[in-house]
Each structure stands twice: as C-alpha cells, then as structure tokens.
Amino acid sequence: MLVVVALGGNAILQRGEPLECSVQRENIRTAARSIAKLAENHQVVLTHGNGPQVGLLALMNEAYSDVAPYPLDALGAQTQGMIGFMFEQELRNFMPDRKVCTVSTQTLVDPQDPAFSDPDKFVGPVYSKQQAEELLKKNPGWAIKADGKYFRRVVPSPMPSEILELPSLRHLLSSGDITVICGGGGGIPVKRINGKLEGVEAVIDKDRASRVLARDIGADALLILTDVAAVATQYGDPASQDIRLATPDKMDSFGFSAGSMGPKVEAANGFVRDGGKLSGIGSLEQAAEIIEGLAGTTIKAEVENEIQYYSSIEQAAGF
Ligand code: ADP
Ligand code: MG
C-alpha cells in the first residue's frame, strides 16, 4: 500500500522534555526504527510536525534583537531542513539499501483565512503562568494559551489548500521504491498574490496538511502517529475506553480536544470520507502493527456495529 505517515512534533520533542538536539535525535531514531519496519511492506511518505521546534527558533530570534526577526515561514523552512535531515539519516541507517529523499514543501493558504485573527496552534516550549506573563510583556505581539497544565505560545494555523510540489512528489512516488519525507510542519505556509508566491506568518497543522497530501497522491492509508497508543473516548477519565475500530460518523460523535486529538481525528475521518481505504491513529512505535489493525485506532467507512473497543485488559497492558 501507499501509506502517508504523519508524525507529531510533540512526539519528537515531548512536552516537558528539554528542547535539545540529542533528545530530538533519540525520539527520531525510535520513530525511524518503526517506520523502517513499515517500509519493508509498504511505500511510505513521511510527514512530520514542527510545533516545538518552530517555537524554539522563534525564541532564538530574540537573542539577536537588533534586526527584524525571521518570519514564521522562514523558520518553518528551517525546521523542515533540520527534522527532514535527521529522519533521512536515521532511516538510511535502518535501511541502508533503500532510497530516501527529503523534499522541501510549500503549502498554499488563503490570506483571508479566519485563523489569522484567532491564533490557536501551540508552538515552542511550555511555560509556567508567571513565565508566560513575563513573555507577553516582552513580546506584545504574541498570544499565549493554556496547553493542559502548562502555557504555550499560539500562532495562526490557516487551512492548507494545495501542496505546491505535488506534481514533483507524484513523479518521485511513481518510482515505487523511494521513501519520501515531505510536508514537514504542514508545509511552509505561502500565499499567491497577483500570481506571485509570498511567505505567510503562520504554522499549518501537519495533520490537516497530511490529509490533503494523502488524498492528492492517491494514498491507500493515512497513519497519524503520536505519543498515545490509541484514541480514548474520554481522555483522562477513568471510565474512558480505547477505540479499536470505528467509522468516521461514530468518531464524530465524541468531542476531541481542539489543540491535540481533534485535528488528528478530523484528518483521519476526512481522508476516509474522501475515499481513502483506512486511517490509523496510535503510537509512533507501532506503525507496522497499526496498519495491520493490531494496534492503535483504525477508522474505516464500513465497520461492524460502527465501533469496537479494546478490552480493559488490553488497555491496562498498553497492548
Ligand atoms: P502531536 O505533536 O503528535 O500532534 P498532540 O499533543 O497534538 O501531539 O496530540 C497528542 C496528545 O493528545 C496526547 O499526548 C494526549 O495528551 C492528547 N489527547 C487529547 N485527547 C485525547 C484522546 N481522546 N485520546 C488520546 N489522546 C488524547
Ligand atoms: Mg498536534
């Protein structure tokens, strides 16, 4: 199968972990091991998030405040280079006989998107309330929101409409044997003004961009890998159940958090509604198991009884 695998930026640098190169490298190695196993039997297109990394670069900007800061599109491009390079290297180490290629990717957005006046995409490290208040004083243009028990900077996250490199990506994929890394951080956000491309101050949600990519390259499956084993019906509640298999309509009947699980379920549902065979959401260590329906949450158009859950024993064991 042709599989788009979308990896979480927060899974690459987990909340509360130091935003350090060695930590990121170790998490990328773990993910690459899992993706190399998947790539034994499937053609993989890998996309990844960049929330923690792009926010860190924005903070590094502050250290050289004599000049205008680099805008978010330029920072997004930097994260594609850095994360793409690390993934490519780790994937090559796990599968030295295979071809791996990273493609810098631009994603078109509508400059009138309402997201520009309502920033909601978390970027950078987490802060205490007091740190957040100090940062807001120093950077009056920033917006900060609560992310669970922490606080984080938020930036506009417009809807992706088109991936500009699509024809070139199709060309690469027609070879059938190249593992392609692209669409990092949802793609570098750009707009077209009077026919000319310009960067945009935003960070696109990588789950939404991966849905557009998966649809437009005609992928069979979309896997969204993160730091939880499956989608929980009521995350954090003792009565919650882990979903094994469900239809998009059934998934829609639960309310999932806007800043985290919500966009994943929205993308996974959308891909199946657009005609994709299946979507999977689960742990970045279980890519090969999720595609077989042996782990994670699978979303398909046709499911017996509309939904099936993992048993409480499987849940307790983290299956
Ligand atoms: P990523 O960087 O992988 O996109 P996110 O933090 O955006 O990571 O999303 C994954 C997080 O979503 C999990 O770590 C978990 O805390 C949270 N989450 C919220 N709702 C749910 C749910 N219903 N089931 C599982 N995880 C959930
Ligand atoms: Mg996310």
Automatic annotation (TrEMBL):
UniProt KW keywords: Kinase, Transferase
Ranges where the Aspartate/glutamate/uridylate kinase domain occurs: 1-276
Key word DNA damage present: no
InterPro entries assigned to the protein according to its UniProt record, in alphabetical order: AceGlu_kinase-like_sf, Asp/Glu/Uridylate_kinase, Carb_kinase
UniProt xrefs under SUPFAM superfamilies: Carbamate kinase-like
MF GO annotations: carbamate kinase activity
Membrane-traversing stretches: none
Any one Gene Ontology cellular component term annotated for this protein: cytosol
One of the GO biological process terms: L-arginine deiminase pathway
Family: Belongs to the carbamate kinase family.
PANTHER family: CARBAMATE KINASE, CARBAMATE KINASE-RELATED
Identification of the protein by name: Carbamate kinase
Organism expressing this protein natively: Pelagibaculum spongiae
Lineage: Bacteria, Pseudomonadati, Pseudomonadota, Gammaproteobacteria, Oceanospirillales
